[in-house]
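chain below, 190 aa
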Amino acid sequence: MRTMSTPSAFGTLKAVPALDRTDLLAPPVTAAIREWDHSDIPAGEFQVAEIDPELADTAAFCAAYDVALDASANCVIIAGKRGGETRYAACMVLATTRADVNGVVRRRLDARKASFAPMDDAVARTGMEYGGITAFGLPADWPVLVDRRVAESAGVVVGSGLRRSKLLVPGRALAGLPGAEVLDDLGLPT
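prediction:
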């Protein structure tokens, strides 16, 4: 197993190839990486780093591991409702921003009302742990809305599906996910 020295934006994380440590990935994330077939971004570029699960939340994680907030992206699950129907989407935004739920996301879902999916619902529908949910391995019919700043990042830290680890991936990998849409101004300044 090869250990990668991480760039300074990734602080003190010790990352290894993700498929070498599938014990650090939720099952749907492992499946998504194994099925990855983009020749321009080999699955070997996906790295995973073990962390303290008590430090999985973004602010605590970035402080503890000296990771720049603009090198960390959050995946938020949004539920949009219209006429008794609920539609879900995942939004990938930099930790320095917040998803424009009531503007960009609501319009994209063609919903009257959009809000963060309840924790229990998000966990059950993704098969991932709260605080570790990521865009890799989500239900195939969900759009993955990716803020352009995330997609254009050389590398970004995202969830692994578990609270005890983080993935380090090229931003363009998120843009290459099935159902991914790169959007300008999805992330609003905090």
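The chain has one domain: 4-189. Confidence is low (pLDDT under 50) at residues 1-7.
thats it, cya
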